[in-house]
Design brief:
Elements lengths: L1 H17 L16 H17 L1 H18 L3 H19 L30
Length: 122
């Protein structure tokens, strides 16, 4: 475990030297996106679906999630997965800047009634 932690710290230190501020992406809650930004995000997803790449990501997730959850590498696996998906999404639609997230704490009382599930986000 210590070896893994040291390797991770070394990797972070090396990548920090190579990264610039312009390489960082800011993810936002889906509810904070404008209607136009959401439309571009959906357009990018639809482009990935039409190309078959979206289905590949779904399969990769389905095939790997149980193994990822079984160990202590879930955070690393999921971060890598989302990063690759995000890169494909941006390549499909350069107007997309990052994959949005759902801040479920805004809807914790009735998550099934979140705006995300309404026709506004279909």
């Amino acid at each position: 475990m210590k070896a893994q932690l040291l390797a991770l710290l070394a990797l972070v230190a090396l990548s920090a030297n190579a990264a610039t501020c312009s390489s960082y992406k800011t993810r936002r809650d889906y509810g904070d996106l404008s209607a136009a930004e959401w439309k571009e995000y959906v357009s990018g997803l639809n482009t990935l679906r039409a190309s078959g790449k979206y289905d590949e990501y779904v399969k990769t997730y389905a095939d790997g999630i149980n193994e990822a959850l079984a160990g202590n590498n879930f955070g690393f696996w999921h971060r890598s997965y989302l990063n690759k998906l995000e890169q494909e999404l941006i390549a499909a639609n350069p107007k997309v800047t990052a994959v949005p997230y759902w801040d479920w704490s805004r809807d914790y009382i009735a998550p099934h009634k979140a705006k995300l599930w309404t026709n506004d986000y279909a």
